[in-house]
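Q: You know discrete backbone vocabularies at least as well as I do. I have my own habits and do not want them to colour yours. No explanation is needed for now; the record alone will do.
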Amino acid sequence: MKVIKSASYDGLDSIVVDVEATFTRGLPSFTIVGMISTSISESKDRVKSALLTNEFKFPPLKITVNLSPSDINKKGTHFDLAIALQIAFHDDKSIKFNDIFVFGELSLNGVIKDSNSIFAIVLSLAKQGLIKEVLVCEDSAKKLQNIPNIKIYVIKNIIDAIEFFKTDDKSRFLFQKNELEYENININNEKFYFKKEFTEDYSDVLGQDMAKFASMIAVAGNHNIIFEGSPGCGKSMITKRMQHIMPPVNLEEILEKAKLQSLDLSQVEFSPKRTFRSPHHSSTKSSIFGGGSTTAKMGEIALSNGGILFFDELPHFSKSVLEALREPLEDNKILISRVNTKVMYDTKFLFVGAMNPCPCGNLLSSANECRCNEAEIQRYKNRLSEPFLDRIDLYVVMNDTYNDNKNKVSSEELFNNVLKAFKIQKLRGQKELNGKLSDLDIKKYCKLDNESQVIMDKAIQNYKLSFRSINKVLKVARTIADINDNRLITKADLLQSLSYRRR
């Protein structure tokens, strides 16, 4: 019995699926088995129409197609092509499918189409080292070309697919890959890509020098940050511009972002521009962390991995959401458990929160009078618990911008500083940026000079810093030292880091 290789998605990893078929005497019928979804069940009509419209005779036999292993749920329209090929070659024993993986949705006239899940499936197979060659349509090939170490063959329709397996010379079907055409830097024989496109520029933000510098530190080291200030002082403006000065990304990160976009059923793009997700404060816990009654689905937290997760009007998010955020902020991963699945997501995002100083927003305003009493202000502040705030690296209080200064800074200037700090971190041998360093890496990379060590000891005693707070201060100081091109953390670096702690 001939077997065609395909695959299905199960949580965050792909599983190899063998498409098998038997043709026996009996009343003509066409059945697909193997814990299939409705989308696969409907492929019977697509396959039959595609073969008949291309002058193939549908065999008058009892046809049973099995998708093995049969104990795992499978879904997706990409099995169409593999099923059609099994039927087209049902009486040809000379055909060998070998280990070429076959993916493609069939239109009723036999043209092969791309589907959203193909890229994510092939990327996962490639990471597991399970795939060497793949047969897809051109639209799929354009997405897959950036995945290293796989050979891609392209066909347009069912006729091409049949000819592909009949011919010995498959070179004319081979897809010619194109390199990513973005600016890049080479560090330790690895390329990191970036795009200087500042559609929203920091030069548009009036004043707020401290907040601008803090946002640059947050981006350079991937540190969590909260902006507190009156309405209109520039919290959201600064946050939206942070995306454009984010550090470069390697090919693996670009592919991971594209994979998440594919699973989110959104447009896949292979751009070094990092993700920016901004859920509304009325969003449910399931939409943010992932949900589903039987199978785990991704939420905003997983989709923002490697990018920015922005919570505007932070205290208005539900208490359950804010408290559940503590684990992904600390461990950089989250486990979503459902009846049939348990899925672990990476959550190495940069968290940005923006909030008013009080319910009416005018507590820090120099022009408007605050209408809140002490109890209302305290109740508002208490929506953010101490354990949650302890996971924030930088806390910036912003004043009014009415007294504008002329010290304007552009996004390009800030990005150049971020790029400099990024190079230093990577040349130091760090796998993660400073904000995501482990306790062991903190001891290795966040070294203080003698003067700053004395100040750190005094700060621990005077401010009663927790172990987590000490690590946060050291990691922020390390990023500031990188921006200032200091090998060791100096007194000035440490004092600036301490100034960004919440009072």
